[in-house]
Amino acid sequence: MKKHQNYFYFLIFILLIISCTQPIEIDNVTFEENIVVKAILTNEIKNHSITLSKTVQIDATENNPLENATVFITDDSGISYNFEESEPGEYISITQFAAIASKKYTLHIETALGTKYLSTPEELPSSSEIDNLDFDIELNDNGEEVVVIKVNSILNNNNANYYRYTYDETYKLKAIYWSPKKIRVISENPFLFTTTIKDPDVDGVGFCYGNQKVKKIMITETKTLSEDRVIAFPIRTIPLDSYIIGIRYSIEINQYVLNKNAYDYYELLSKFSDPDEIFSQVQLGNIPSNIRSEMNSSNNKVSGFFEVSTVYTERFYVNREDITDTNFTNYVTSSSCLDQPNPLVEDRFGRSPLLDLLNNGYIFYIDSPTNPLDVTRPYVLIGKSCGDCSFFGEPVAPSFWID
Q1: Top-level CATH class of 29-124?
Q2: What percent of the chain has pLDDT over 70?
Q3: Residues 338, 344, 345, CA angle at the centre, nearest 5°?
Q4: pLDDT (tens digit per residue) in 204-252
Q5: CA–CA dist 67, 83 (Å, integer)
Q6: Euclidean distance between CA atoms 233 and 148, whole angstroms
Q7: What is the pLDDT of residue 16?
Q8: Taking the CB of residue 271, how many other CB atoms lie within 10 A of it?
Q9: Start and end residues for every CATH 2.60.40 domain found in the chain
Protein backbone atom coordinates (compact mmCIF):
# COMPACT_ATOMS: atom_id res chain seq x y z
CA MET A 1 0.00 0.00 0.00
CA LYS A 2 2.80 2.36 0.90
CA LYS A 3 4.46 1.72 -2.49
CA HIS A 4 1.31 2.80 -4.35
CA GLN A 5 0.98 5.84 -2.10
CA ASN A 6 4.55 6.96 -2.93
CA TYR A 7 3.87 6.50 -6.64
CA PHE A 8 0.75 8.68 -6.31
CA TYR A 9 2.72 11.48 -4.62
CA PHE A 10 5.39 11.27 -7.35
CA LEU A 11 2.74 11.78 -10.06
CA ILE A 12 1.33 14.78 -8.18
CA PHE A 13 4.85 16.26 -7.98
CA ILE A 14 5.43 15.88 -11.74
CA LEU A 15 2.04 17.45 -12.56
CA LEU A 16 2.84 20.45 -10.36
CA ILE A 17 6.13 21.01 -12.18
CA ILE A 18 4.46 20.81 -15.58
CA SER A 19 1.69 23.18 -14.54
CA CYS A 20 4.26 25.77 -13.39
CA THR A 21 5.97 25.87 -16.78
CA GLN A 22 4.74 28.77 -18.91
CA PRO A 23 5.75 29.45 -22.53
CA ILE A 24 7.51 32.75 -23.22
CA GLU A 25 5.33 35.03 -25.32
CA ILE A 26 8.01 36.50 -27.60
CA ASP A 27 5.39 38.39 -29.64
CA ASN A 28 4.33 40.39 -26.57
CA VAL A 29 7.79 41.79 -25.87
CA THR A 30 7.83 45.58 -26.38
CA PHE A 31 10.24 46.59 -29.13
CA GLU A 32 12.22 49.83 -28.91
CA GLU A 33 14.14 51.07 -31.93
CA ASN A 34 17.36 52.48 -30.45
CA ILE A 35 20.69 53.19 -32.10
CA VAL A 36 23.62 50.80 -31.83
CA VAL A 37 27.15 52.21 -31.97
CA LYS A 38 30.41 50.39 -32.62
CA ALA A 39 33.26 52.90 -32.36
CA ILE A 40 36.90 52.16 -31.59
CA LEU A 41 39.58 54.85 -31.73
CA THR A 42 43.17 53.67 -31.27
CA ASN A 43 46.74 54.93 -31.37
CA GLU A 44 47.10 53.64 -34.96
CA ILE A 45 47.53 56.21 -37.72
CA LYS A 46 44.76 55.17 -40.11
CA ASN A 47 41.26 55.92 -41.36
CA HIS A 48 39.17 54.90 -38.37
CA SER A 49 35.68 53.48 -38.81
CA ILE A 50 32.43 53.78 -36.88
CA THR A 51 29.42 51.54 -37.47
CA LEU A 52 25.91 52.78 -36.72
CA SER A 53 22.75 50.73 -36.84
CA LYS A 54 19.33 50.46 -35.24
CA THR A 55 18.04 47.68 -33.04
CA VAL A 56 15.94 45.07 -34.82
CA GLN A 57 13.16 42.69 -33.85
CA ILE A 58 14.29 39.43 -32.23
CA ASP A 59 13.24 37.45 -35.30
CA ALA A 60 14.99 39.76 -37.80
CA THR A 61 17.53 38.20 -40.16
CA GLU A 62 19.28 41.34 -41.41
CA ASN A 63 21.07 44.30 -39.89
CA ASN A 64 19.35 47.70 -39.89
CA PRO A 65 22.01 50.32 -40.73
CA LEU A 66 21.63 53.91 -39.58
CA GLU A 67 22.18 55.92 -42.73
CA ASN A 68 22.82 59.60 -43.55
CA ALA A 69 24.11 60.52 -40.10
CA THR A 70 26.66 63.23 -39.34
CA VAL A 71 29.58 61.74 -37.43
CA PHE A 72 32.72 63.40 -36.06
CA ILE A 73 35.19 63.13 -33.18
CA THR A 74 36.62 66.12 -31.31
CA ASP A 75 39.56 66.34 -28.95
CA ASP A 76 39.95 68.67 -25.98
CA SER A 77 42.19 71.00 -27.98
CA GLY A 78 39.36 71.80 -30.39
CA ILE A 79 40.44 69.66 -33.35
CA SER A 80 37.60 67.91 -35.17
CA TYR A 81 37.89 64.71 -37.22
CA ASN A 82 35.03 64.26 -39.68
CA PHE A 83 33.67 60.94 -40.95
CA GLU A 84 31.81 60.16 -44.15
CA GLU A 85 29.49 57.27 -44.96
CA SER A 86 31.28 54.76 -47.19
CA GLU A 87 28.41 52.26 -47.25
CA PRO A 88 25.09 52.05 -45.38
CA GLY A 89 25.81 52.53 -41.69
CA GLU A 90 29.60 52.46 -42.10
CA TYR A 91 31.40 55.77 -41.49
CA ILE A 92 35.11 56.28 -42.27
CA SER A 93 37.29 59.18 -41.15
CA ILE A 94 38.09 61.49 -44.05
CA THR A 95 41.71 61.86 -42.90
CA GLN A 96 44.08 59.46 -41.22
CA PHE A 97 44.85 60.20 -37.60
CA ALA A 98 45.73 58.51 -34.30
CA ALA A 99 44.64 59.03 -30.73
CA ILE A 100 47.37 60.73 -28.70
CA ALA A 101 48.15 60.27 -25.02
CA SER A 102 47.01 63.01 -22.63
CA LYS A 103 44.21 64.14 -24.98
CA LYS A 104 40.54 63.40 -24.46
CA TYR A 105 38.23 62.48 -27.33
CA THR A 106 34.47 62.84 -27.71
CA LEU A 107 32.25 61.14 -30.29
CA HIS A 108 29.41 63.17 -31.84
CA ILE A 109 26.50 61.71 -33.83
CA GLU A 110 23.52 63.46 -35.39
CA THR A 111 20.90 61.37 -37.16
CA ALA A 112 19.10 62.41 -40.34
CA LEU A 113 16.09 63.27 -38.12
CA GLY A 114 18.19 65.71 -36.10
CA THR A 115 18.64 63.66 -32.91
CA LYS A 116 22.07 64.34 -31.41
CA TYR A 117 24.22 62.00 -29.35
CA LEU A 118 27.62 62.46 -27.74
CA SER A 119 29.98 60.36 -25.69
CA THR A 120 31.79 61.15 -22.49
CA PRO A 121 35.35 62.41 -23.07
CA GLU A 122 37.66 59.37 -23.25
CA GLU A 123 41.43 59.36 -22.76
CA LEU A 124 43.95 57.02 -24.38
CA PRO A 125 45.18 54.42 -21.84
CA SER A 126 48.81 53.39 -21.41
CA SER A 127 50.26 51.06 -24.04
CA SER A 128 51.53 47.52 -23.58
CA GLU A 129 53.34 45.29 -26.05
CA ILE A 130 53.00 41.57 -26.65
CA ASP A 131 56.08 39.76 -25.41
CA ASN A 132 55.48 36.48 -27.26
CA LEU A 133 52.91 34.03 -28.58
CA ASP A 134 53.19 30.35 -27.85
CA PHE A 135 51.12 27.17 -27.81
CA ASP A 136 50.58 24.13 -25.62
CA ILE A 137 48.95 20.76 -26.30
CA GLU A 138 46.33 20.12 -23.64
CA LEU A 139 43.29 17.94 -22.96
CA ASN A 140 39.85 19.54 -23.18
CA ASP A 141 36.87 18.64 -21.00
CA ASN A 142 36.14 15.65 -23.25
CA GLY A 143 39.65 14.28 -22.90
CA GLU A 144 40.57 15.27 -26.49
CA GLU A 145 43.93 16.77 -27.40
CA VAL A 146 43.76 20.42 -28.41
CA VAL A 147 46.28 23.09 -29.31
CA VAL A 148 45.91 26.20 -27.15
CA ILE A 149 47.53 29.39 -28.47
CA LYS A 150 48.49 31.73 -25.64
CA VAL A 151 49.68 35.31 -25.37
CA ASN A 152 52.12 36.90 -22.96
CA SER A 153 52.54 40.65 -22.58
CA ILE A 154 55.63 42.47 -21.42
CA LEU A 155 55.93 43.66 -17.83
CA ASN A 156 54.30 47.08 -17.76
CA ASN A 157 54.76 49.75 -15.12
CA ASN A 158 52.27 52.22 -16.62
CA ASN A 159 49.12 50.76 -15.03
CA ALA A 160 47.83 49.16 -18.22
CA ASN A 161 45.59 46.88 -16.20
CA TYR A 162 42.73 46.01 -18.55
CA TYR A 163 43.10 44.07 -21.79
CA ARG A 164 40.96 42.95 -24.70
CA TYR A 165 42.06 40.58 -27.47
CA THR A 166 40.90 39.87 -31.00
CA TYR A 167 42.41 37.60 -33.64
CA ASP A 168 42.35 36.97 -37.36
CA GLU A 169 43.59 33.51 -38.34
CA THR A 170 44.65 32.13 -41.73
CA TYR A 171 45.47 28.51 -42.52
CA LYS A 172 46.83 26.67 -45.53
CA LEU A 173 44.82 23.88 -47.17
CA LYS A 174 45.62 21.44 -49.97
CA ALA A 175 43.15 20.09 -52.51
CA ILE A 176 42.95 16.29 -52.29
CA TYR A 177 42.64 15.73 -56.06
CA TRP A 178 44.13 18.76 -57.78
CA SER A 179 44.33 19.15 -61.55
CA PRO A 180 46.11 21.99 -63.36
CA LYS A 181 43.37 21.88 -66.03
CA LYS A 182 39.73 22.86 -66.11
CA ILE A 183 36.88 22.39 -68.57
CA ARG A 184 35.69 25.27 -70.70
CA VAL A 185 32.27 25.14 -72.36
CA ILE A 186 32.65 26.19 -76.00
CA SER A 187 29.06 25.72 -77.10
CA GLU A 188 25.77 24.25 -75.87
CA ASN A 189 24.32 23.86 -79.36
CA PRO A 190 26.00 21.68 -80.38
CA PHE A 191 27.65 20.55 -77.10
CA LEU A 192 31.34 21.34 -77.41
CA PHE A 193 33.92 21.32 -74.58
CA THR A 194 37.66 21.70 -74.20
CA THR A 195 40.22 21.84 -71.40
CA THR A 196 42.41 24.83 -70.59
CA ILE A 197 45.29 25.35 -68.18
CA LYS A 198 44.30 27.10 -64.94
CA ASP A 199 45.67 30.57 -64.28
CA PRO A 200 47.84 30.35 -61.12
CA ASP A 201 47.07 33.98 -60.27
CA VAL A 202 43.34 33.24 -60.27
CA ASP A 203 42.92 29.50 -59.68
CA GLY A 204 46.02 28.93 -57.56
CA VAL A 205 48.21 25.83 -57.68
CA GLY A 206 46.27 23.43 -55.47
CA PHE A 207 46.65 25.22 -52.14
CA CYS A 208 44.09 27.50 -50.53
CA TYR A 209 44.00 29.84 -47.56
CA GLY A 210 41.08 29.72 -45.17
CA ASN A 211 40.33 32.61 -42.86
CA GLN A 212 38.35 33.14 -39.66
CA LYS A 213 37.98 36.06 -37.28
CA VAL A 214 37.21 35.93 -33.58
CA LYS A 215 33.52 35.81 -32.74
CA LYS A 216 33.68 36.17 -28.97
CA ILE A 217 34.76 38.75 -26.42
CA MET A 218 38.14 38.00 -24.82
CA ILE A 219 39.16 40.19 -21.91
CA THR A 220 41.45 39.88 -18.93
CA GLU A 221 42.86 42.12 -16.20
CA THR A 222 46.06 42.44 -14.19
CA LYS A 223 44.75 44.84 -11.56
CA THR A 224 44.37 42.00 -9.05
CA LEU A 225 47.78 40.48 -9.87
CA SER A 226 51.11 41.21 -8.27
CA GLU A 227 52.48 42.63 -11.52
CA ASP A 228 50.97 44.20 -14.62
CA ARG A 229 51.71 41.39 -17.04
CA VAL A 230 49.44 39.04 -18.98
CA ILE A 231 50.80 35.50 -18.68
CA ALA A 232 49.67 32.56 -20.86
CA PHE A 233 46.24 34.00 -21.66
CA PRO A 234 44.44 31.50 -23.97
CA ILE A 235 43.47 33.07 -27.29
CA ARG A 236 42.51 30.17 -29.56
CA THR A 237 41.81 26.47 -29.01
CA ILE A 238 41.98 24.10 -32.01
CA PRO A 239 41.52 20.30 -32.02
CA LEU A 240 44.88 18.63 -32.61
CA ASP A 241 43.51 16.60 -35.54
CA SER A 242 41.96 19.63 -37.29
CA TYR A 243 42.87 20.61 -40.86
CA ILE A 244 43.15 24.20 -39.62
CA ILE A 245 46.59 23.26 -38.29
CA GLY A 246 47.14 20.57 -40.93
CA ILE A 247 49.85 22.28 -42.99
CA ARG A 248 50.72 25.82 -41.92
CA TYR A 249 48.83 28.17 -39.64
CA SER A 250 49.05 31.89 -38.91
CA ILE A 251 47.24 34.05 -36.39
CA GLU A 252 47.32 37.83 -36.01
CA ILE A 253 46.50 38.93 -32.49
CA ASN A 254 45.48 42.44 -31.47
CA GLN A 255 46.04 43.38 -27.85
CA TYR A 256 43.97 46.38 -26.74
CA VAL A 257 44.61 48.20 -23.48
CA LEU A 258 41.31 49.51 -22.07
CA ASN A 259 40.24 51.86 -19.35
CA LYS A 260 38.13 50.53 -16.48
CA ASN A 261 34.81 51.68 -17.94
CA ALA A 262 35.46 49.95 -21.28
CA TYR A 263 36.53 46.76 -19.48
CA ASP A 264 33.33 46.77 -17.41
CA TYR A 265 31.27 47.27 -20.56
CA TYR A 266 32.86 44.29 -22.34
CA GLU A 267 32.59 42.15 -19.22
CA LEU A 268 28.85 42.71 -19.01
CA LEU A 269 28.44 42.33 -22.77
CA SER A 270 30.24 38.98 -22.71
CA LYS A 271 27.82 37.71 -20.08
CA PHE A 272 24.86 38.85 -22.15
CA SER A 273 26.34 37.21 -25.25
CA ASP A 274 26.73 33.85 -23.49
CA PRO A 275 23.83 31.54 -24.50
CA ASP A 276 23.88 30.13 -20.97
CA GLU A 277 23.14 33.63 -19.63
CA ILE A 278 20.18 34.39 -21.92
CA PHE A 279 17.63 34.09 -19.11
CA SER A 280 19.82 35.76 -16.49
CA GLN A 281 19.17 39.19 -15.01
CA VAL A 282 21.71 40.78 -17.38
CA GLN A 283 19.79 42.56 -20.13
CA LEU A 284 21.13 44.71 -22.96
CA GLY A 285 19.44 47.82 -21.55
CA ASN A 286 21.32 47.32 -18.28
CA ILE A 287 24.74 47.49 -19.95
CA PRO A 288 25.96 51.05 -19.41
CA SER A 289 27.01 53.06 -22.44
CA ASN A 290 29.24 56.13 -22.46
CA ILE A 291 27.09 57.58 -25.27
CA ARG A 292 23.85 59.43 -24.57
CA SER A 293 21.29 61.59 -26.29
CA GLU A 294 21.83 65.31 -25.80
CA MET A 295 18.10 65.55 -25.11
CA ASN A 296 18.34 62.94 -22.32
CA SER A 297 15.18 61.38 -23.71
CA SER A 298 14.23 57.86 -22.67
CA ASN A 299 13.10 57.36 -26.27
CA ASN A 300 16.64 57.89 -27.58
CA LYS A 301 18.58 55.12 -25.87
CA VAL A 302 21.98 53.96 -27.07
CA SER A 303 23.55 50.52 -27.14
CA GLY A 304 27.30 50.36 -27.67
CA PHE A 305 30.41 52.09 -26.48
CA PHE A 306 32.96 54.60 -27.68
CA GLU A 307 36.25 52.84 -27.00
CA VAL A 308 39.56 54.72 -26.96
CA SER A 309 42.37 52.20 -26.58
CA THR A 310 45.98 51.48 -27.40
CA VAL A 311 46.62 48.46 -29.58
CA TYR A 312 49.62 46.27 -30.28
CA THR A 313 49.56 43.66 -33.06
CA GLU A 314 51.61 40.49 -33.42
CA ARG A 315 51.51 37.73 -36.03
CA PHE A 316 52.47 34.12 -35.31
CA TYR A 317 53.22 31.26 -37.76
CA VAL A 318 53.50 27.56 -37.02
CA ASN A 319 53.80 24.43 -39.19
CA ARG A 320 52.15 21.09 -38.51
CA GLU A 321 55.47 19.39 -37.86
CA ASP A 322 56.28 22.01 -35.21
CA ILE A 323 53.19 20.92 -33.29
CA THR A 324 52.89 17.17 -33.75
CA ASP A 325 53.77 14.25 -36.03
CA THR A 326 50.23 12.80 -35.87
CA ASN A 327 47.85 12.86 -38.82
CA PHE A 328 45.06 15.38 -39.20
CA THR A 329 41.50 15.12 -40.51
CA ASN A 330 41.27 17.04 -43.78
CA TYR A 331 38.44 19.39 -44.71
CA VAL A 332 37.07 16.55 -46.84
CA THR A 333 38.03 12.87 -46.69
CA SER A 334 39.20 10.69 -49.56
CA SER A 335 36.34 8.27 -48.90
CA SER A 336 33.83 11.02 -49.68
CA CYS A 337 35.51 11.63 -53.05
CA LEU A 338 34.99 8.17 -54.55
CA ASP A 339 32.28 9.46 -56.87
CA GLN A 340 34.22 10.24 -60.07
CA PRO A 341 31.74 10.13 -62.98
CA ASN A 342 32.77 9.72 -66.59
CA PRO A 343 29.69 11.25 -68.30
CA LEU A 344 28.59 11.40 -71.89
CA VAL A 345 28.95 14.64 -73.76
CA GLU A 346 25.47 14.06 -75.17
CA ASP A 347 22.98 11.27 -74.53
CA ARG A 348 20.38 9.80 -76.91
CA PHE A 349 17.78 12.30 -75.69
CA GLY A 350 19.83 15.27 -76.86
CA ARG A 351 20.88 16.29 -73.33
CA SER A 352 24.40 16.67 -71.97
CA PRO A 353 25.09 14.69 -68.76
CA LEU A 354 28.56 16.32 -68.77
CA LEU A 355 27.09 19.83 -68.74
CA ASP A 356 24.52 18.86 -66.09
CA LEU A 357 27.28 17.66 -63.76
CA LEU A 358 29.41 20.74 -64.39
CA ASN A 359 26.40 22.88 -63.45
CA ASN A 360 25.90 20.87 -60.26
CA GLY A 361 29.22 21.12 -58.48
CA TYR A 362 31.53 18.83 -60.42
CA ILE A 363 34.82 19.88 -62.02
CA PHE A 364 37.45 18.33 -64.29
CA TYR A 365 39.71 15.71 -62.70
CA ILE A 366 41.51 13.74 -65.46
CA ASP A 367 41.14 12.86 -69.11
CA SER A 368 39.22 9.62 -69.62
CA PRO A 369 41.74 6.84 -68.93
CA THR A 370 39.77 4.04 -70.63
CA ASN A 371 39.88 5.41 -74.15
CA PRO A 372 41.44 8.84 -74.68
CA LEU A 373 40.10 8.87 -78.22
CA ASP A 374 36.49 8.29 -77.08
CA VAL A 375 34.90 11.67 -77.84
CA THR A 376 31.62 10.61 -76.23
CA ARG A 377 33.17 10.35 -72.71
CA PRO A 378 36.35 12.45 -72.80
CA TYR A 379 36.54 13.56 -69.14
CA VAL A 380 36.42 12.15 -65.63
CA LEU A 381 34.92 14.58 -63.11
CA ILE A 382 35.08 14.97 -59.35
CA GLY A 383 33.17 16.98 -56.74
CA LYS A 384 34.38 20.56 -56.36
CA SER A 385 35.18 20.20 -52.67
CA CYS A 386 37.46 17.25 -53.53
CA GLY A 387 39.31 18.85 -56.42
CA ASP A 388 39.24 22.53 -55.59
CA CYS A 389 39.95 23.75 -52.06
CA SER A 390 38.73 27.25 -52.92
CA PHE A 391 35.43 25.84 -51.71
CA PHE A 392 36.94 26.51 -48.23
CA GLY A 393 39.43 29.32 -48.80
CA GLU A 394 41.05 31.70 -51.25
CA PRO A 395 43.17 29.94 -53.93
CA VAL A 396 45.89 32.61 -53.84
CA ALA A 397 47.99 33.39 -50.77
CA PRO A 398 47.23 36.72 -49.03
CA SER A 399 49.87 39.42 -49.31
CA PHE A 400 51.16 38.93 -45.75
CA TRP A 401 51.64 35.18 -46.08
CA ILE A 402 55.13 33.75 -45.57
CA ASP A 403 55.93 30.09 -46.29
Answers
A1: mainly beta
A2: 84
A3: 125
A4: 999 999 999 988 999 999 999 888 899 999 999 999 999 999 999 999 9
A5: 13
A6: 10
A7: 47
A8: 15
A9: 29-124
